[in-house]
Design brief:
By secondary structure, the protein is mostly helical. It contains 6 helices and no strands.
Length: about 190
């Protein structure tokens, strides 16, 4: 029982650490003036991806090499750099609409980009024999909670920052992508 609690809190801590990307990016995406229903849909989508990505990682952890996990990290960083740069340029140019908004394909790209690192973690956890159900429940809950929190707080920030909130959000997203790449090289 004690071992299970230690594992649970370790996984929950790891899940919140992984979900901080979604929280940070959600702060910037709050500039899209999303309704509560949209915020919940985005949070649910990111939560689902934070369930499936580590689950895929756990089940394939023994089958795939560490290089595939590295590729997933680079792909996630690349998506974040692209989406962040696009938001940043849109904010600077003062356009109201962005090419990639958090709906449809843009929502899927966002969810994938913030969830790919959980695939890599799932690979490692799979090699260590982590409990899959406990892992995905912790990851999904944390991702949903942090995404919704970031989006709701981002709506408030947008009220005060106005058009600069896109620049702010894009900068955060770009910085997170850059941080991942620098971490992979350092």
């Amino acid at each position: 029982m004690e071992q299970t609690m230690v594992e649970f809190f370790g996984l929950l801590f790891m899940a919140f650490a992984l979900g901080m990307d979604a929280f940070s990016i959600g702060l910037g995406m709050g500039s899209y003036k999303l309704r509560l229903k949209q915020v919940l849909i985005i949070g649910f989508t990111v939560g689902i991806f934070h369930v499936w990505m580590p689950l895929l990682g756990i089940f394939s952890g023994k089958l795939l090499s560490a290089q595939f996990g590295l590729f997933a990290s680079y792909a996630g960083a690349g998506l974040l750099l692209f989406l962040g740069l696009q938001m940043l340029l849109t904010g600077i140019q003062g356009k109201g609409e962005t090419v990639v908004a958090p709906v449809g394909t843009g929502l899927i790209l966002f969810a994938i980009s913030v969830s790919l690192d959980s695939f890599s973690v799932g690979l490692s956890l799979g090699m260590l024999g982590s409990r899959a159900l406990m892992t995905i429940l912790c990851f999904g809950f944390a991702a949903f909670f942090l995404t919704v929190s970031g989006l709701l707080l981002g709506r408030r920030v947008h009220t005060y920052l106005g058009k600069y909130s896109l620049v702010f959000g894009g900068s955060i997203m770009f910085a997170v992508g850059l941080k991942i790449i620098l971490h992979l090289h350092g």
